[in-house]
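G.,

No rush on this.
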Amino acid sequence: GRSMLAAVLLRRDIASLAGTEQMTGLSSSAAVALMGEIAEPLMSLFAQDGENNQQSRRQVGHCVAELCGSLSVSSAEHGKEWMKVLLGRLEAGCVAMDVMYLRLLADIADRSPVTLWSVGMAETFASLFRGQITTLEHLEASMGALCEVGIAFEKAKRVAQSGEKANEVEKALMAQFPENCTSFNANSPPAHLGKLFLPTMLEALVQFSAQPSSQLDALSNCMSHLATCANQCPSLLAGENSSLEAMMRACMSIAQINNPQDDEDVTFLKLSALDVFATITAVPQIKRSIMKPTAPSPCSVGEADRQSSPLLQFLIQGNAGGEQKGVLYLCAELAVSGVDDDEQAWSAEPAKVYDTESSWEDDHTALHAESLVETFVENLGGASTLPAVFQLVDRLLASDSWKNQRAVLSMLERCLAAAPATFVPHIPATVDAALRLIRSQSPRVQYQALQLVGSLCCANFVETDSGPSLTGADQHRILVREHYGGQILEAVSHLIKSPCTRVASHACLTVVSYCRGGNGNENCLVPIEKELIVPYVGSLLDALRSGPLSVDLTIPNSVAEGSLTVLLRAIGAVACLADASGEEFLPHYGVLGGMTACAIFGLETSGQVVEVAANVKNTHEMSTLRGSAIEAASIIGQAIAGPEGENVSIFGKDALDIMNLATTLLNSETADIIPIDQLLAACARIAAVMGNQYVQFMPLVLPHILKRATEELEISITDDTDNANNPNGEDDDDGYSVSIPGMGAKKFKINTTQLEEKAQAARALYEHARALGKEFGPFVEASATAFLPLVHCKYSGDVRSTAAQALCQIFKAACLSATATDPLSNTQGPAQTMLPLLARAFTKQLAEEVDEDDIENRFAIADALSEVMWDAHTHKASNGERVAQITVADTREIVRCLMSLISSCLSRRSNLLSEMTDYSFDNDEIARCEETARAESEYLTHLVDSVGYQLKCLREGFAPIFAESVAGPMGQLLTASSNDVRARLAAICLFDDCVEHCGSAAANTYAPMLLKGIQEALDGISKNEDVELKQAAVYGIAQVARHAPKSLSPTQGQDLLRKVYDIAKELETVSKSDMDHVALVENSVSSMASLTLLRGSPLYDSVSDKGALMNVFMRGLPIEEDFDEAKICHDGLCDLVETNIINVQTEYRTLIRIIGKILVLVSEGDEVASQNTCSRLMGVIGKIQQTVDGNSIQAAFSVLEPEAQEALVSAMQ
């Protein structure tokens, strides 16, 4: 005991020697000398063998490994010298199968991976594993050491890739952190070691596992080593086909160990074996090896004539004789047998607001097996795995066993999540099975059927504004609500009233999924079509009222936990029904009274005091219930208010009551009555409804939002006594453990609750600023000061992204406020002050968002940046000056950074586009790539827009910046040599803007480059090229025609005219209201006019017969999509009439139609015509009145829409 304690203390002292002189009191050379003095004695002590001192040797081994790490940090050269000596000393013990030597080797690899691989090669380490394995203990130690050596190689490689920027301490820290490796190299040293030793070790593992009962701990350790290696060094396990095949057969053999007694440890061993292989199949190159077809490689795994790989067949189906089952069968077997047998006890367990591990502890085997099904289906592709899954489904459903039925429903849900595109043909059968089994008498089957139905709703396709599919994968759409909505909601409504609270609670959650889920998300943030929900709202509310909402709230302490949970879920269902129904929820507005009653559940109010009633036990669940109720009330009010606020008055009194309760609780600072984040969320929604009337509450609400934003984040670093002996970097609720050179084992802990609160505060402020608009002006400076630092929060991407979004809305409010104030005050106003701060902060943070997988945060910050630039560009004071103007110097730096970000984005898209041609990619893998590529496309749009808005603000001042940073990289993307249509679109848009806004010199310089890109884009019309690309190209023609007409040769001009006319003439046969691409057609009309019809057109004189062109031009007016083009065309129309090119006597009907519609648009706030143009249009009306008889005019007037008639009459008055 004393020797072990001494070793532990010594290890801490050794770790501290790697610190600085200020920390240790020793110079670096003195510390190195001291470590050198103890190295040999330690190793000699370790070498002393004996049965009774194995634990002491283990602790001494930890000291030796720690010495390697500390010495390497203090002096890389001394560390290497000691490592060479140590490896020589280890060889004899490792070859002799002394497990202590093998474990020491593993420890050294873990603590000093860089130094280990700087002095050793594959051949060096191969000499350490030449011993003969005769016992399981030998195998476990050898396998652990081999895996750690392989992992050390990956760590060393990662550190080497960090370059010279990191110092030795940073490199040591970097090497400690485990990192998943998703690539492998068949020529790497780990792959060579794996080829040499892994097959033999795995063969021994299979032999030892034949009698597992007495050796389970060692067998489990072996599987743990393999699982860790699969995550961090797949090259060792599968770098060679021989290694991969050996590992596959070993893992599958262990996964099929007979377990007649249902021994949990044996079951865990089987799951571990499946885990290893599930992990390894996630590595793309290994997946390709497994799936490589025997016939010549097809384009994708979805091809019908593809001959399956033998490895893949073995993995999924097992062997031909049937004695070895496939992995899906093995998982299904465990999913059935691994569930809790006591269904009655499960049903009697009350529903809980927050599920924990203990909620499902008796089902952990089944849940683990089902998660493995999902992993195998996702990794190996639905096309390869789903046929086998549905064979299992048929076999399991042949029995009436509730366990079988539950397992089937769960497996179908997992398959849907893993392979939604490939799953589409199976949707009808899956829905039928879910709706049939949802009527089962088994609560467990009911629950799982509800879970599947909810997942189907989350997978349901919901129309969005996202761009077109790259490969046609959009055809794989799941349309469950559209085909089965009524049946689903009818079945769910029955279970809302289930006596089993776990089922009733889940039924309410299924309603939530139906209302909000879609496109693979629990909340797709896009409203579903109202006709899919409104017809069923009444019956669902009846079920909720007669079920969970009928709970007696008069005696709070009598409401059981399960009933409380169901009530809370029911409140959420009501809120979602209202949100999805919008103003059509108005007939059911009476339900709001029940929500407000729940909001004061168990409370007493007296004046401005709200407190928990006497003798009421105030639990966290009750607090959450009240918060959900007050949020639901605000959601109902916001829903029925209507898109134009036509029903706001109905909600008015209730809104004031809610705000009075909310502000009373906020100012009492009693968070245990209703959580503050729910109060702030409710306030934000009410602000959106009340608008300007809400300003009175801002002084009561805003301080609480700002307090959360500015509250100092609690971060602690403490000694990690629990993990001092074996720090492994594990993250848990108590923090993250790591061994710091010179400091020893430490635990980092961050208050994650505070991070969540900061993100919630940012969302609340966003909604307040958006709702109040210019009325938010007085609160701009304090809000911006509070949230700007959060854009750089190191500890949470969610905080960074929500803070950026809040700040862009604050800036918008500042701009709106500035437009209503004295223009002279704007030069020093909040908007002008904020613009450079926000632009620099957002751009800097985008450059630091290095996690390529975290695209949502990058998108949110880029979106905020583009919104800020848009507001700066568009908001002007009464004197016509912008309320905020970016400087040339700031723009130069920002654009330089943005172009770097654009380059990185396009590189990622290029990789994704090339990956989709891989033969191992099926429709689901392609769909996942498409989703990522589409997200990158949207991110790219915001980056390009941010450049474009700055260009438009500086105009000619931007020309040098365009030449320095934009013209070169984007010019290369203008033509079809780039296979990325979105890259070409970005390039054409920026060149369009340059020609339009950067002055005549820039226009004449870049128009020839732009025209080449335009020509190629329009040549792709017959190839069904991207409509947005053609739209931008057509827009560019108009800009070249106006700003660089000499760049157009007569031949090129005529060719482009034919192309835009071919697009625009669709107006002769199709009305705009029936077109899917109105903006493209309108741009074509504008370009055609700019080329030939309007004043100064370059082809005006060369086109003698303009009749057909003029007819299409008149049919295309008014222009509605692009206000700038609209103003030019409508002003040009006046020119054509005033110069008598358009004859009012023959065209008066068309002119009256066009002018009437223009006036309607202007009256609605659409800036499609300037005030001067409107006056000229009325002059055209006057000219018609002078030259056309009254009856004809009246006949033309009578066929107009009532709005147009009213606008014309009003204008003439």
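When you get to it, here's the other one too:
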Amino acid sequence: MVRSGQRVPLLGARAAAAMAGFVEPGQEAGAVLVQVQDDLHKFKVKNTNLKGNVKAVDISNLKTGIERTELGLRKHAENYLHDINRQALTISSTDNKEVHSKEPPKWGLHFGASQKQLVLPRVPVEPVTVQAYSKSALRVSQSSQQQLEMDMKIMLDPQNISNTAVLKQQNYETRLPLITKKKSAPMCSQKIGKGHTVSNLWGLPASHHMGSPLPLLEEDRTKGILSLTELRLIPPAAKITLQTPPVVSKAAPFHEFHKQHKKSAVEISSRVDLENTDTITFPNSKEAIYGKYSSSKGNIAPLPSSSSTVSARKSKPAWTYPAQQLESDLQIPSQTQPPQMSPCQSLQDLCFDCDIAVYHGTIDQKAPGFLAFKQHYCLSWKSIVFFLEHTEKLLKDYAVPLATINCKKLAEVASDFELNENPTKSDILTVIKNQSTVEKILNRPGQRYKGQGGTEMAATKIQTTWRCYQARKACVRFRQQQWASGVIAISWLLHNHMARVKKTLKESRQRHLENFYIRAKHLAANWNRIRTSRRTIIHIPSLGYSQCIREHIPGLALQQNMQMGRLCDILDANVDVIYICPLHLSEELLQYYNKLLGLQAAVRSGKPEDMGDLQDRFKILTPEAINSFPKHHMCLATQLKYSPKTIKRIKILIQSKDAYIIGGVPHKDDLAVADMLNVPILGSVPEVAHLYSTKSGSKRIFTSACVPTPPGESDIYNNEQMISALSQLILDNMEVRRWLFKVNDEFGGNGTAYCDIILHLKCYHWVQKERQRYSPEIWSKKWAHEPALVKISQELPGLLAQHVQPVNEKRFPTWEKFLQTFLSQGGVIEAFPLSENVTNLTVDMLIEPTGKIKIVSSGDQLHADGPLRSSGTTIPQCSVDPAVLNSLCLKIGETCKSKGVLGYFSVDFVTFIHPQTMEQQVWATDLDLCYSDQLALTQLMLYMTDGNLDCRSSRFEVSLGSNKMKSQRIQHEERKTPSPVSNRCAVASSQLRHSSLSVIYYNVLLQMCKARGVGFDLQEKQGTVFILYEDQQRYRLGMITIGEDLQGVLMTFARNLFIIHQEISAPNMQGETNFKMAIQDIEAILGITAENKLKLEEERPLKADALKE
């Protein structure tokens, strides 16, 4: 058993030696203090164990001595550490002899200290050169050792008088070992590893922390820094440095890939003179640990390993000087002096710029460079390891033979990732130095199956692809079925919805029709009262054709506004007019019609000053829906139906008044508007009107009325029927040269085509010979026609394709297009009159609600757009005997009445002199169950003349007033006798067009016409009146010329056209117009009129002679 008393002298001796500043040779002051503290601790433990066994020793006194010794040691240790940390050190000049003195010191510190050496604070300093001495160990000179020993004694016992005297010497300075420069050795191809060597962050190393005043046991060290701080074994403000035991001071060689090991070009000699020291330079450039140093950096020896660096730093004296002093005094032995930095910073930069090689997806985790990198980034190592694991997996999976990872980028990128977030391929590629090469390998097709688990992955891929194909096929089939079911469901829903809408619309239209019949009966019952009492007429000039026809009508709105003469119904003092206009009229046009209609009183008196204001008698309303449906080709009735504001205003205007509607071409929406306004319609049911307004329907009416019609065939709907019917018509009417083809639903000659078949039929002469072979009785039999029918039928298709000429070439440029429309809508084939001089005439009729049939207008047609299109009329007609014409019209009227036709309608006739019989022929050719343009012009003509048109006698008469002032007696006598009556004729047209009219305003046009003598004489009730339709495009207008006789009126009308054309056209810009054709047609009519006058003059003497005889 060891006695405690034997231990006390040893403790006292060591403590006294430490406090006095003397230590045994080869030991450091810090090591001595540590040893003393360990001995005290062990002695305390043993003392505690001996309390029950040793009786001779006074335990309390011994304990007191130990505590005093501990307090003293603690105090001196703290003073020692405080002085080392606070003392400002200086470096003496290089010429001081004490620095190079070879005299051995009285006391010294061994630089190869043990693990329990005193560790100074880590101060960042600039890269320095560490002197290398002989025997591969760093030693200081004898003079430097003496200086260090003296500094140690002074620091351990600064109150000693002898130590104070030494400090007061003038030449006393604290010196560092002399740093000399050695010639740089050639660059070594070795790679240097660097980094921290901390194995466990939470466990302290074996050496003490510089701020710890007491020794630490092994069990205290393993508890961690936080535990020691809480136990106040480590001061809170202490700077903690974690270090491991030193390693051999030798550079760790790392060889290049595919190269053999080469020895370093610079070897540290085993014996070096103290005077001539070799230097090891820390590189300043940021070079990678696994790469070669750039040749531009100079020939610098390889950097020692991290353990070598720590060992070299520990081989210095146990105390160091402040970093500020070192930065100002040390010089970098290099030709190009880079920015100065401390060794710690240089090492840190090297750690940031190092590279890690990955062979076949594996990182050598025992490589010094990797360990140094791991040591440096120990605090964030978990995220780096996480990132590296994914990197290794990716490189293994794709069998990448070599990849170089940039540690600096790796640390930056890894710090941004969380552990639950896996890095992507692009993220991994950003940290790879040879990124382009690796990326090519990764993108190589099939590369994934060459790496780790490639076979399994290939099998998985094959299975996945097959399953994906099966699933895709099933999904596509399912989606097709789903789509089909969706289409079926939607179609069914739409069908049901459409059926409900159709049912609702059908019920609504049926209700409108029933109400129409109810109101029509009421109108018929009260017509005699209504037509003689105060009433309001609502004019809706709508063209209610089918949608396909309205789409092909150019300027539909303008075409519907060509019946402005309807306003002239206010000629009857009991009538107010509401005119629904399909266009917005400007104030200029409204003012024009206000003045025109205000001439009624002036016309009756013959004095212009009697002109009045009749704005309260007529209203021109424009539906607001025309702006909402500008391109839908709606008829005016439909637009009015969707114009609630206009409907409301009409209701206000007709409130508590008798009113009825006069429409245009009937449409189902006319019934809807009538139902909304609760007024009757003076017109036919739309279905009846459309049925009998077609070319085939009119043929049925004429056939039922037993009126003469051209030879022809109706209701043709296929090509075979057309060829067969036309062949038979040709055989039955060999004298007919031209045949007409008319589409059922077209109007105004737009759906008409003609062909002079006889001129182009090659078998015509053969057919004539065949006809002459048979007698008339035999030729009338069908079997005799069969050979001729076959020949004609074979020749007709080609003949028609080459020689048929449509009237409207813009709509039907070829026979094929016309034939397609002809067969789709149906049509008729009829013969053109045999004579070259043909006159077409139109008769307007009215079937009143009571059933009375009246002829309200008649006129001969003008053809400014070709022989088959009407452009105007001469009123009254004078080409057919009125009695014959009235008879035909009454027959047609009775038939229409029997078919349910009501209101206004017009019948077209054609008359000519038959070349064989020389008798006048009259054929009924067309029937339009609507209000015509001719009737509107007739209304304006009667309004401007206050005359009377007797269609039964075809006379138009006006009463003339006296021009001179007469006495009251004479005027009274004239009242007893009727005013003198004069006959008048009129030429009217609503289809005049000239493109140059758009460049001139209407007021300018009227002024020019007035200057050229074109106007209306109120007293004579003759002259010219213009009808203006719109003021936007202004390329169309209407004109009525009234005169005493037909020849004079025609000449005046032609002269007016010539004047207007001359005023608005330049010689080189004639414009597009139909004025010229109208003038030519009028000239032809005038020629016929002159011939007829000559014939009449020749016939009169013959008739007189016959009467005398």
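The radius of gyration is 63 Å. The chain has a mean pLDDT of 76.

Enjoy the weekend,
O.
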